[in-house]
Design goal:
Elements lengths: L18 H11 L4 E5 L3 E2 L39 H4 L2 H9 L2 E4 L6 E6 L2 H10 L4 E4 L4 E6 L5 E5 L2 E4 L5 E2 L9 E2 L2 H9 L27 H16 L5 H16 L7 H13 L4 H15 L2
Parallel strand pairs: 6-10
Antiparallel strand pairs: 1-2, 1-3, 3-9, 4-6, 4-8, 5-6, 7-8
Helix pairs in contact: 6-7, 6-8, 7-9
Length: about 300
């Protein structure tokens, strides 16, 4: 009796991993927490469950919470060294859309001094000790061993990225990494926290006349801010444009009566950053909206 023919399946080549994912896995293996960055070189926004940080946030965020979301949420706090998470199905869609890899310098025990232009680089060469240097599109990243709080705009063209921040991975760089100098620590102490945009709060005179400003009714103003937060949170595309237009709408309604407080502006900035906007993008959008309205 003729024996049935056994068909043997010859496995084909495994699908090639996206370049950002391969880079991320390599970095994670060296102890550097990584995350995917989307177009605009910013993190992916929170999912619906985590929108507005109602879930309480990641355990390694400033405000710990019970969040167990498997997705790429909470911006820099999503960064991890766990290869199983990085290569998981929950992150797969993000890697397919990713344009580059971000990492959490503070999580790796590092500080990045981000020098945006030639003037900033010239300053660093006279004010800071030499260390590992990575070229960027417009300037350089100087990477030191040690951590400090992250602050943007410590001087013209200079940002500090370490704890509670992310930086774009641009290659291993050149030079020997040295210890974080006191000069950088001093710069980080001088500036206020980038999370609280107090310097950008609206401070304009109340309108003249004997009538009370209608915006001073807490319910009216709070409802407007809540609607603005929701509009930003629900944006699925064109986040930059949505944030700018939302800021513009808030300022056109509440910007001339002196009702907006630091707390209101912080709520708007927090909503925008939860969608992946950087503090600098928030500041620029707020400033541009004020300029357009003549505030």
């Amino acid at each position: 009796m003729t024996q049935p023919t056994t068909i043997r399946r010859v496995p084909g080549p495994r699908p090639r991993l996206p370049e950002p994912l391969r880079t991320a896995l390599t970095l994670a293996a060296t102890g550097v927490p990584v995350l995917p960055l989307r177009r605009g070189k910013v993190p992916f926004g929170n999912c619906r469950t985590c929108a507005g940080n109602v879930c309480g946030g990641r355990p390694n965020m400033k405000t710990p919470g019970p969040c167990r979301c498997p997705g790429v949420c909470h911006a820099w706090a999503a960064a991890t060294t766990e290869s199983a998470v990085i290569a998981s199905s929950a992150w797969a869609a993000a890697w397919r859309q990713a344009v580059c890899v971000g990492y959490h310098p503070g999580g790796a025990g590092l500080t990045v001094v981000d020098l945006d232009d030639a003037d900033a680089i010239a300053w660093a060469r006279t004010a800071l000790p030499a260390t590992r240097t990575v070229p960027t599109t417009r300037g350089e990243h100087w990477i030191y061993q040690g951590t400090v709080r992250s602050v943007n705009g410590v001087r013209d063209g200079v940002d500090i990225k370490s704890t509670m921040a992310y930086a774009r991975y641009l290659g291993p760089g050149t030079g020997t990494m040295t210890a974080l100098p006191d000069a950088v620590r001093a710069l980080a102490v001088r500036k206020p926290s980038t999370v609280r945009p107090a310097a950008h709060a609206v401070a304009v005179p109340a309108p003249s006349g004997n009538g009370e400003c209608r915006h001073r009714t807490p319910a009216y103003l709070d409802r407007g801010i809540a609607m603005a937060e929701q509009r930003i949170t629900e944006a699925r595309s064109a986040v930059h444009t949505t944030v700018y237009r939302t800021f513009l709408a808030v300022l056109s309604t509440h910007g001339r009566c002196g009702c907006l407080t630091d707390a209101h502006v912080t709520r708007l900035f927090t909503a925008a950053q939860a969608k992946g906007e950087s503090p600098r993008h928030c500041t620029d959008a707020w400033t541009n909206a004020r300029t357009r309205l003549g505030l």
